[in-house]
Structures are given as structure tokens and as C-alpha cells.
Protein: GNAT family N-acetyltransferase
Organism: Streptomyces gibsoniae
Amino acid sequence: MTTDVRVLRQNEWGDWYGNLFRAFAGAEESAEERALSKELTDFGRSLGAWDEKVCVGTAGAYRFHLTVPGGASVPTAGITMVSVAATHRRRGVLTSMMRRQLDDIRDWGESLAVLTASEPAIYGRFGYGVGTLQLRAEIDTSRVQLSVPPGTDDVRLRYAAPADALDACEAVYARLVPGRPGMLARQPGWERVALLDPPGERDGASALQCVVAERDGEITGYARFRTRLGWGVTGHNGTVTLSELAALDPATDAALWRFLFGIDLTTTLTVRGRPVDEAWQHLVSDIRRCGPQLRDALYVRLVDVGAALQARTYQAPVDVVFEVTDAFCPWNEGRWRLMGDAKGASCARTTDAADLALSVRELGSAYLGGVSLTALAAAGRVRELRQGALAEASLAFGSAVAPWLPHGF
Ligand SMILES: CC(=O)SCCNC(=O)CCNC(=O)[C@H](O)C(C)(C)COP(=O)(O)OP(=O)(O)OC[C@H]1O[C@@H](n2cnc3c(N)ncnc32)[C@H](O)[C@@H]1OP(=O)(O)O
């Protein structure tokens, strides 16, 4: 079988999207959702795999800017919309698309590619490593109390229609982006994704609700959520499901969480995709009754090792030589000397002896500071060739704020 992998044309979008939609066995989507998906498709950066006239594969690469440790906003390919028709699976169609895509990203001069995986087993072979984790929890708000910091009572909350509050919420989001590695600067149109609220997908829950927080006359945070009422033999047992929460200061953050904990007739607060170091975990009386769980989130691929490593800063001085293997993108292979600190970094090829040996996948995992090189070495995935180099590099790569991807794509 030969499949032809090529850039998507405007008139092919229906077949292309149909292949993707079927691969994810999706329920019928709303017209609004479909229109937004099309609007966000970047045709010049999307690939289709064709078996004669039939679309059998899809892949896209959004044009994103990713915050890296130190706060720089780095042009990054956001890999998305990956599918292969079940009739053509396991014959190398995905591999052909990944080949073409990574070559293209390199030509576009983007040093990083990131994605969220439908299944963790798929992307390691193409050099992607898990770079961020996310937290989910099912909080028993009938039993767990929240103690809040001083100033929380100064925060005023009010309901707002999600669309009416959009600009104010976006302004809060934009202020948070530089402060946390893994966050994505908002690209045009993406603000509307969070407001999609097709009634057919609510599964018995309310329409999307929004509460904004104000302090000293300024909007300092917001929460978007749904409620779902329920009644058992002993009374109400409704659920609050958080979609999004952002706060510019600890008091606002605590005020929003206190509000979510306290909505009448609800006894469970469900949160997904939250930062692993989020403050609420330190405000609750009983973390066990919050049922916290970790899950893999953003996978990171260094497309250009030298450019990527020098795009971020390092929280402690570092001078190490990496021996990098990269079977899928051999242009990265070889020795790289990284010198850096909290102000900046340089990374260039060297013939000096190597201090640490690892594959590009481990570099991707460590890149945003969420997975330590020491932990990867303990798993046998990083080898220390100069004593002390592992501790030095591991400390330098860390991040004081846990990296976090705020939304899927
Ligand atoms: C960023 C995103 O969009 S994530 C979304 C990914 N898409 C989906 O999950 C939709 C449903 N699944 C699919 O469409 C397809 O099964 C895909 C895209 C995951 C795989 O496509 P295929 O064309 O079958 O992959 P391909 O034949 O190139 O496989 C390459 C290798 O990956 C392995 N592989 C492929 N899919 C999987 C998987 N789901 N789990 C484990 N291994 C896998 C293959 O076995 C093969 O291994 P080998 O090189 O050792 O022989």
C-alpha cells in the first residue's frame, strides 16, 4: 500500500475532519463546534494521508507560543488532530506523517513541538517525553473544610455571563502566561474554545457558569464551572465540575475555591487538569478526601536541541556536556555543551567529553522543569559520565513553579 502524505487543501477539509472524527468515535458535534474547528485549522501546517482519493490520515501543527522556564515565550508547534483510519492502521501511516511533520517544523525554524496524547504509548518513539503532569481530584465538600489566607474576605465575587466576561477573563489569563512554564499564549480564536457549551454535551449538568473576582475595583480572577443537582435517600448530593480557574493573587484564588466548595445543594467538587502545585491542596482540612490523582499532560519534543536548550534559563548555574541520541531526528545527535544560569544560556556543539548521556526524549521530559533528570537517571534513562554532573544539571533544569498546560488542543 502506498499513501501520499501532503499538505491539506481547503476543499479537502470535510473528508479530512471526517477521518479524524471517526477515529475518535465522537458523538455528533454542534455546528458551532465544527465551524470553530475549521476556523482554527491551519491549512498550511496540516497534513493529510491519502490512499488514492480516500483520506486515511490526519495531523496538524498549531502555531503556538509556549512559556519556558525563565518566562520566554517560544514559538512552538502544537501537534494535534492526529488520526489514522482503522482500515489502514499499523502500516506506518502515522510514522510517515510524523516524519514529514518534524521535517517541516525544523524548516519553519521552530525548536519545540508539544502535544497531548490520546494514549501515552504512541509518541515516545518519535522523541516526545512527558514534560508536565496534571492533577485531578474529586473533593468531598461535605467533609473537607477550606481555611483561607488573610485578605480573602476583601475579594468580591459576582456571576457574569461567560461571553460578557470574556475580555476581562482573557486579561487575567494573559497576565498569568509568562509566570508558569507550559502555559500557551492565547492565539486568535482560541478564547472561544473555552466558551463552547453545546447543550447536547452537558450530560445533565447546567450550562457553563462564570464567576469573576474583584479586588480594589480590579478583576483579579475567574472560575468557569457547571453544576449538576442530584438527590439521594439522605438528601442532596449535587456536583460542581470546574472547567477553568485563574487568579492573580492568593486571596482571589482562595475566594474562588471557597465559593466552589460552598455552593448549596452540592457535595462534590470535581477538578481536572489542574497544576500539580496548586494552592488549594494546602488549604484543605483533609487531602485524602479530595482523592488527588496525577496524570500525564504535555509531551515535549526538542526539534532543535541547541536552540531549545538556549531558549530557557536555568535556576542554578550549569555547565554540562550532553551526549544526545535521537534516532528519529538524527540532526540532533551528538555532543552539546550547555552553559547557563538564571539570566540566560548558550548551547552549542562540542567535541569535549560528555558528562551526561540521554536520548532526546529525556531532554523533552526535563525541559520544562517538571520531571527531574535525577528521577530519569534512577530509571536508567540518563547516564552520568562525570561525577556531580547529574546533581548540577538536575538542579539547574528544575522550576520553582510546576509547569502546567492550561488547556487541551
Ligand atoms: C496529538 C494527538 O492528536 S493524539 C491522538 C492520536 N489519535 C488517536 O488516538 C486516534 C485513534 N488511533 C489512531 O488513529 C491510530 O491508531 C494512531 C494514529 C494512534 C496510530 O496510527 P498508525 O498508522 O496505526 O501507526 P503506525 O503504523 O505508524 O505505528 C508506528 C508504531 O507505533 C505503534 N503504535 C501505533 N499506535 C499505537 C498505540 N495506540 N499504542 C501503542 N503503540 C502504537 C505501532 O505498533 C508501530 O510500532 P513499531 O514501529 O514498533 O512497529
In short: The chain has a mean pLDDT of 97.
